[in-house]
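Query structure, 628 tokens:
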């Protein structure tokens, strides 16, 4: 059909699977001068009088739609906020993860700030054309675990590589797990800026105000060579002239998006590389099994440079703080601060019945109990207080503490070292930095503060507890948390790993991170667990699971596990099946699951038992990291 005006292809911002495609809208003559690809618009859809938000993706002279086209109602902004490259990336990610493009655009394009945008336009800024890179490479490397001249080696390595690209007129996108890593990089870069001159640094963190985040988003669009630093959502930052994406510590669970599309920063980086041709670098102190797999198939190149190994001793003592640890602590306190990593926070990580030794469980949800730093007994699952504990086995009301947490460890070391400053840092109340003065720092994994010149000693307690977690990744996660703690040592510091012996402890002491990852990968290959294969989970009401199961069973090579009933507060809230599949089957499985979601979404609605909010009838995680 020949259109009387130009036609815009619009992506509607809606989570409904039936709207996950482009729709044609005619462009009114009075808006032709301001509508261009990437601008935000509002449109009518169907019989609803309410306007819906969307993005113009492209403009054509004709439409293939045979009926009468609706007109675009209004232009929200004249700024092309959605670049073609980011739209393509969003489309690819949505298709790979059996998700909706609206879910990705929610992450990729921050909320608009009218005041910030007006100032940006008045300053003469315009959206610059993006220049794709040429021949690209994929590289991984292990970084020396040490603090040298007041800076962690990983910070120095990433910052220097980004500065070199900037000197060549090219931009770098740095993705780190959380704000602590962002703060370390920003501090180093700004200090270097004072010495060598201005550096265009864009802080793309999500914990800023909405207006500040939108200002940084607009700064990415100008085309000025820059260094962009952020967490997982920054992988969609519309950086112009992008030379490289650097991902720090890809094993950290913070790189995994906990809501739809349930994707990992690492995989999105590779998808973006296919579109823009930039380089991808994966750096860490340890190595994930996913990286080990990519190295084994030749997808990644290992560029690890030789470096001096840290001094690590290990012991297999059953005593929580053995003689080796005590000696290292005393020696470390003579020259500087000492870091002691413990497995859990609070006074006690577990609670038991004092009469029958059964583990204490929550009266509300039957989850495990622990004692927090205020000495209140709480549930790890629902966080409910359990002040009137009663044992479900023997009926006793007497409880006893289990393994010590960080708060009790602080108290114990305070008694053992009178007059020595003892500091606690946990995920709830983390510290970013401590000085170089003598003292003890008790920390849970991931919350270890940086010491100005590095720690003189690092002691890792509760190692067996970390290895004994009920998850497939217990060893991988433990090695990562230990390695990141050891990396906070000064170059002449001493580390002690308490309670672990054998091959794993020896390889860790020799810093054989590649061998540890290869061994973990070999065991996953043998069992056909991720990352040897991909594993998806599909959750829905029992009736829907029964309806879609035959179609899934018809796919050759897809292994179905389950169904498993998910029960909350005595009621079945969801039935879940797990799907094991090869990487080559991902596109076919994702397409089938999206078709099933589209079919199930008509007239169906489901509500969360916890929040009461509306949920999609079928929840799909193409890579579910939590089920194993």
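Result returned for the query:
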């Amino acid at each position: 059909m020949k259109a009387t005006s130009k036609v815009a292809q619009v992506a509607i911002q809606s989570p409904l699977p039936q709207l996950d495609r482009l729709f044609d809208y005619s462009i009114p003559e009075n808006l032709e001068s301001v509508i261009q690809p990437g601008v935000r618009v509002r449109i009518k859809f169907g019989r609803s009088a309410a306007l819906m938000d969307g993005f113009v993706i492209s403009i054509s002279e004709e439409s293939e739609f045979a009926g009468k086209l609706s007109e675009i109602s209004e232009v929200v902004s004249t700024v092309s906020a959605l670049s073609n490259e980011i739209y393509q990336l969003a489309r690819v990610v949505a298709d790979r993860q059996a998700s909706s493009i609206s879910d990705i655009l929610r992450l990729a394009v921050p909320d608009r700030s009218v005041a910030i945008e007006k100032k940006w336009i008045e300053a003469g800024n315009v959206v610059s054309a993006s220049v794709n890179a040429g021949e690209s490479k994929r590289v991984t490397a292990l970084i020396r675990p040490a603090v040298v001249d007041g800076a962690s080696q990983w910070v120095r390595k990433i910052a220097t590589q980004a500065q070199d690209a900037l000197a060549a007129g090219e931009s770098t996108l740095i993705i780190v797990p959380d704000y602590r890593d962002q703060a370390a990089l920003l501090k180093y870069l700004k200090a270097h800026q004072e010495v060598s001159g201005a550096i265009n640094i864009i802080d793309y963190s999500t914990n800023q105000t909405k207006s500040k985040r939108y200002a940084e988003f607009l700064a990415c669009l100008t085309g000025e060579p820059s260094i962009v630093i952020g967490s997982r959502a920054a992988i969609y930052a519309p950086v112009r002239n992008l030379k490289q994406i650097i991902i720090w510590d890809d094993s950290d669970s913070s790189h995994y998006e906990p809501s739809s599309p349930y994707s990992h920063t690492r995989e999105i980086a590779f998808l973006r590389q296919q579109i823009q041709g930039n380089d991808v670098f994966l750096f860490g102190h340890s190595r994930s099994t996913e990286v080990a797999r990519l190295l084994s198939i030749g997808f990644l190149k290992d560029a690890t440079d030789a470096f001096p190994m840290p001094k690590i001793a290990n012991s297999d003592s059953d005593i929580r703080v053995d003689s080796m640890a005590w000696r290292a602590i005393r020696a470390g306190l003579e020259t500087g601060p000492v870091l002691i990593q413990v497995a859990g926070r609070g006074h006690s990580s577990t609670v038991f019945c004092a009469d029958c030794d059964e583990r204490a469980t929550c009266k509300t949800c039957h989850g495990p109990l622990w004692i927090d730093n205020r000495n209140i007994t709480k549930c790890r699952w629902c966080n409910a207080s359990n002040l009137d504990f009663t044992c479900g086995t023997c009926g006793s009301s007497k409880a006893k503490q289990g393994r010590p947490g960080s708060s009790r460890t602080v108290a114990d070391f305070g008694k053992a070292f009178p007059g020595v400053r003892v500091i606690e840092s946990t995920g709830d109340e983390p510290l970013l930095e401590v000085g170089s003065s003598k003292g003890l720092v008790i920390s849970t994994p991931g919350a270890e503060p940086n010491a100005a010149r590095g720690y003189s000693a690092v002691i890792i307690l509760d190692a067996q507890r970390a290895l004994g977690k009920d998850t497939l990744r217990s060893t991988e996660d433990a090695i990562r948390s230990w390695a990141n703690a050891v990396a906070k040592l000064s170059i002449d510091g001493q580390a002690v790993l308490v309670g672990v012996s054998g091959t794993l402890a020896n390889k860790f002491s020799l810093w054989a991170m590649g061998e540890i990852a290869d061994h973990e990968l070999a065991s996953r290959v043998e069992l056909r667990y991720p990352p040897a294969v991909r594993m998806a989970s599909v959750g829905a009401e029992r009736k829907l699971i029964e309806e879609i199961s035959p179609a899934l069973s018809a796919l050759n090579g897809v292994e179905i596990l389950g169904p498993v009933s998910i029960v909350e507060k005595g009621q079945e809230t969801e039935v879940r099946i797990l799907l094991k599949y090869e990487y080559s089957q991902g596109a076919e499985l994702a397409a089938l699951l999206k078709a099933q979601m589209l079919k199930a979404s008509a007239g169906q609605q489901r509500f969360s038992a916890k929040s009461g909010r509306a949920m999609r009838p079928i929840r799909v995680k193409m890579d579910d990291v939590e089920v194993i």
